[in-house]
Amino acid sequence: MVKMGANIFQNVSRQCRNLGVLYPHQLKHCHTGTVPAEYLKGTWYPPHQYHYHGQEEGPNIASTLPLDEVPPKKAKAVVCGGGMVGTSVLYHLAMLGWSTDTVLLEQASKRLAQELAEAGHDTGWKQCGGLHLALTRDRMTHFRKMKAIAEARGTECHALTPEEVSRKCDILNTSDTVGALWVPGDGVCDPYKLTYSLLKLALEKGSHVVEECQLSRVVVHDQRVVAVETSKGMIECDFVVNTGGMWARKIGQMSEPRVKVPVHPAEHYFLYTQPLEGMNPMMPAIRDPDANIYMREFNGGFLCGGFEKWAKPSFERGDLPGRLHERDLLEDWDHFHVLLKQMLHRAPVMKNAVLGRLYNTACSFSMDHRWIVGMVPELLNYFVAAGLRSGGSSAAGGIGSMIADWIVNGTPPMDAYDLDILRFLPAHNNRRFLIDRVQEVPGIHYSIAYPFADFTTGRCLRMSPIFPKLKANGAVFGQVMGYERPSYFQRKENINSKDYEGDTENSAPFQMAFTNTWTKPPWFNYVAEEYAACRERVAIFDYSSFAKFDVWSKGSEVVQALQYLCSNDVDIPVGGIIHTGMQNSYGGYENDCSLARIAPNHYMMIAPTIQQTRCGTWLKRNLPADGSVVLSDVTSMFTAICIMGPLARNVLSELTDVDLSTKAFPFFSFKEIDVGLANSIRAMNITHTGELGWVLYIPNEYALHVYNNLVSVGKKYNMLHAGYYAMRSLRIEKFYAFWGQDLDSTTTPLECGRSFRVKLNKNIDFIGREALERQKKEGVKRLYVQLKLQDHNPEVDPWAWGGEPIYRDDVFVGVTTTTGYGFTLNNLICLGFVRKYDQNGQMAYVTPEYVMDGHYEVDIAGVRYSASISLRSPSLPSKFPEPQDNRYLATQT
User: Fold this and answer.
1) Is 0.90 topped by the overall pTM?
2) The domain 61-117+190-263+368-424: what is its CATH number?
3) Confidence band (pLDDT; 50, 70, 90) for 393?
């Protein structure tokens, strides 16, 4: 029974009357289930049909399910959490033959099935189409970009005018819309019926489901899970899958070492109305992202909800509820009022509807709004599928299949680095950080995906010692892996308030970088100056966010271990630097790094910022188990400052006694030097962009001293501070690939023009060698290319920002990976992979001759622009004092 206090009821009634909505007094007699709605392709479907006092109960089909009272003593896999994702994992494991040896632990899955039956209605798949409304031109540009890639991959969708929207759904108010995206193949289904079906099929295969079974401990021995302890006994197991939803973080804390799953619940609101005369049962599922709302037809009425810009964290002051039925929260009409007002504006007929109930339920969100999947870094046989927001319906099938395939076959079936749990650091699991961040995360769901989107919460988490100095010099910061690093600098003499498009609600004590446009960005002129300084004079960068590791041994063990891990020959002279990939068994990049040989038995590894956890985990899992090779993450021990440009040698030579000539300190070499009064500075003649310069890895206590001296000396050379946007332009123009943007765990060196960095001509075994030898013999099915747009006007046309379709002779052959403005080439540059498809649509082997022989276009928001193509780095005018071998320049960020 739902009971409302008189004051609350009067307040709710007053708000609804003010909006022209009828509110039923029967609500006081309404009793409902407590399972939150799930999300499918942008629409919501309710967990059950609400029913009023006196309505007959439906048949109990759940009683037909053979659930276990007690768990088995042993199992191959234990799935902790029986929602849609857990059930999907169970089902897919069963389909792969792991049925009788798989156990799902759940507190209330039987009740979900009962509620589905009690609803008394058939709610299978309904292809009603999806209608996405746009209230701004930028939103419509976003839709056109989505349409371009969707159509290239075979999905039908259409851009509509406001008049066409009205004809598609005549109950909508389109007076303030500028258009819409129509996806006719979209639709809705009942996630709980789907869950029940998956559960039933898994049980028929012999899987076990133990209900009302609480997990209390995950037992670990030698970095592996060996058993789980439950309220109904101990289960020995080979694998554990944490699908605990908003409890996933808590489940992670039940092992030693603790598994870090950075999720936290936030309140989510949705409501039903009673049936409304004239409702079209095939009404499209409506999304109005600029108003932060969604709505669809449900049982003759409306089902509506939204993702407000700033959400309310759930259970902020206390622990999570112990049971599923405690998940629903008190209604907050004041908080929901803004969304309700937008719903009534968009569908005025809704004012005639009688409300059923407003739901406030806790939904789990990750700290960056993306799902969390994969094998955890702490243990070898522990998997996670969490942070699905309210998107269980749309995600569960694919995630369940991927996790099951990964467990059974030992490797993931696809690359999903942007969803992998290895993208996080332990700091991201901090509860206060998560509570702060989860206020902002739900609103990201409907935000326009502008380039370089970032968060305003959870900032100032990781900073280099020179952060205050950079801030004082006009740095505008972005964050990667929680690290604040300059994206560009606003020079005080040039600052124009109109040039900066920040979030006006941001109250952080520093400037944050935002690119709230699809066209020429507001920071363009700043980056142009920084680029010019790198090419013509000298610039100073903060590279401190790079992941840094020391790897050493007592004897030669470290060399042997790295030779097996790395695809390049790392047995280089002391003082040398080598760029290498670390391949997986398929030949793909698990890591892309530079190795400096500090001593015969000591290397320093520099890896991309986003690979700090991933790289460290890969090394730990593949270095000798006997402890003969020691690995230390030294990322936070060093401040990294890069000075770059033709005059970099002039600046540094005034602060050190070391001979910096090319003969004494050649490219791709390392020396430990003094700078100013500071010693033990690890200096590397490498810039990661192709320009002359050095990266100085400075013990943190010396960082400010070295920085101040470099800036002081640099004044006479007109040295400029520069950020990562300039670095991006430099490397894209020179055709350098970066891991996580261009490369991933499925990309091989032969596909991206790096076969010269692979030691196939030496009798040295390494991970992935067999796969690369086979690919070299058979050929590749994609090649990395650089495209220069030819008929694009960067002043007025929308820019390519990555993910745009590439066409060869009017046939779709790939997508752009990263893009940027080439200030020397004086146009927009796109990087990406070109494929060849046979008549059956299957990827075929591709050759350089095929790639170069064709007319290319890049589709930007529905307009195709001609482009010239290249497989080699372009020849750029050089201001270097001497030539540099571009082939061996490192490529990471």
Assistant:
1) no
2) 3.50.50.60
3) low
